[in-house]
Amino acid sequence: MRCGAPGPRRIIASFPSADPCAGPGTVRDRALTPWRCKTFPLYARLVRYGFRKHATYVRGALAGAFTNSVFGILRAYTLIAVWQARPGLAGYDITDAITFCFVTQAFIGPMQLFGGGLTIPERIRSGDIALDLVRPASLQLWTLAEDVGRAAYLFLVRGIPPMLLGALLFGISVPTRPGQWAAFLTGFALAVIVSFGWRYLVALSVCWLLDDRGVTVLSMVLSTFFSGMMVPLHLFPGWFGDLVMVLPWAAMVQLPTDLYLGTAAVADTLAVQALWAAVLLGLGALGTRAIRHKVVIQGG
Amino acid sequence: MARTYFLLLWTWTRAAAAYPVSFAMMTVLGFAIAAIDVAVILIIFANTTTLAGFSREEVLFLYGAANLAFTICDTFVSNLDRVSTHIKAGTLDTFLIRPVGAWIQLAADRFMATRIGRILQAGLVLGYAVSALGIGWERAWMIPVMVLTGIVIFASLWTIAGALQFLLTDAPEVVNTLTYGGSQLTQYPFSVYTRDLVKGVTYVLPLAFVNWQPGLYVLDRADPFGTPGFMRFLGPAAALVLALSAALVWRQGLRHYRSTGS
Questions:
Q1: Could you tell me if residue B262 is inside a domain?
Q2: Are A233 and A91 in contact (CB under 8 A)?
Q3: A94 to chain B, minimum CA–CA distance in Å?
């Protein structure tokens, strides 16, 4: 579209190009993209831009880390009291319970457990979504790439401080075997995708509801309570406890935390997470197709 | 002043009702959010009979009393913590040139009538706990006093949180540790915390007077940390001191605000 004119091309060259095949054969393009097909580098660049976009707000992220740490300390005392009353509950000892508390606090940022993180609701309201939908790249993958960058940044800045503080104040356990680390990091990556898949569906629903506040709160209730953010899901009684363990929200927090603690069967856990990632991404793809037919643009 | 405040509340309520599906969902979900905390307490007590020496009904009583005060403030003044949003958007200036106090306008800003479900929920939990514990009037007279004290304390904390945002424009989330952190802290008996933390939230930030100290009197319990009996009645005085400091901090914050000029 705009590739022909040299002027605008120079300006948009510093942003992720809207067209994966924009400006073929240019020097800059050859330098950045080793392959003929430029779709992969587009998404790789979007990951980097997502990371950098959030890196701009470093003070905001550090404030989040501080807040998550303080709440982590308060939660830790409650969990300590519970495990003092019932040592060995749910197969955790007190150190496991404290570790659980701080690992889950560290997840708040990357998994965006209180909701949000995607700009789609605002873009639907402002009408900008129409622009996103005519781009020759998938809206879903585009958003996922940016969200992965966001999660990576927030993992570093909002995830690590609460764990360091927890280690300093209470002492937390750290996986010792490389296999456990590999399982945890895989589980963590899958959890980020599950979290994205869920938030993407929530964001798309704005197309039908026009106001995102109701679904945002619903999503927050589900993804804080049923994820294990409040108390470990193992404490939920009876059949209810079994049910919540196989819901998608468990795949965001409880399952990767169990992989960190090494208390879960690795293959089964990763399978449940992968299944939910696939289901949610599939539903998201269907939703993306649906909004192409039903975009309601308010304002203009 | 009060008339303007309620007029603003009504305006925001009508604005929110323009999206009926969201409005209905928010009212129901307001109840659900509040229910999460109760569910967590119930889940904990499904696994144990006492938590740091307190029974389920006693914890529900402490939770209900603190949460009643907290949700009332959350509904009516919590939007004070959007100061930094207004500073960044440049909309704070419009609040300052209107002939009504900025505190009143900011407290009413984006008022959500749908949060009233949460107040109701806290009241129900408190009512259940009081009747289950069979507390007689000779001690129950303290309950309205402690809820009022709690309202003053939480409203003061929100005012301080709003005022701090004049400094922390980039990082408004920090002040959540004061307000929502205070609520989280007062949900459980203070006996789960360490002595130093409890000293801090008794003598520095008087959160202990929201429900812990007066609650011990209502429950007729001795303080596990061994504070003298007269401390149970100091709540209103502590709340007053905090309210005065909050007013001072708010005035200082507003006085030092320099518009971006954009």
A1: no
A2: no
A3: 14
